[in-house]
Amino acid sequence: MDIELDKSWKNQLEQEFDKPYFKNLMQFVQKEYNQYTCYPKFSDIFSAFNYCAFPDTKVVIIGQDPYHGPEQANGLCFSVKDGIKHPPSLVNIFKEIESDLNIPYPESGNLERWAEQGVLLLNATLTVRAHEAGSHQKQGWEIFTDAVISKLSENSEKIVFMLWGGFAKKKMKLIDAEKHVILSSGHPSPLSANRGYWFGNQHFSSCNKILDDVYNKSITW
Asked: Is 65 in the active site?
């Protein structure tokens, strides 16, 4: 399986590609895509890395699984393709941005615009079988994406990690809190948000204040 990956990421992750778990994972993914409908489309599996090069990464948002409905997933966590109805978690993300930064709710749920500014939108599992949430978990993706987080922690400085919900917060142990900033809150899913664990976290304004101080540049959310 040929991996189309930005050169800066290839340099960081080449050791992972040679490990047995990764070779087994690629065989599994190839077989699944040959036999079933899977998301995102094959060429988008590593999109998060290709939109946001390693040295450009200023913010990391961690999701769990790609969307498993037709035409939704585009390789970036929480993001959907242009023209696709916004899933509930994304709706709540945009509502929080609206109230936090006083900017209008966007028409498109495609977050490529964030990725191009240095936001790594990383799902822990990068593929899924259609209509079967979690179907590609525990095949090796989590080992790979944990390695990604560890590499960023070790070889970068002053990244803002946004950890939403219990699953993402477990990644805290991979991040050097002396070098980086961790913002954590409940998940934007309706279940968590409606219980008061999401709205009002002000992560987007907090993140921009940190980036302004460090890089003199904030994200246009």
From this structure: yes
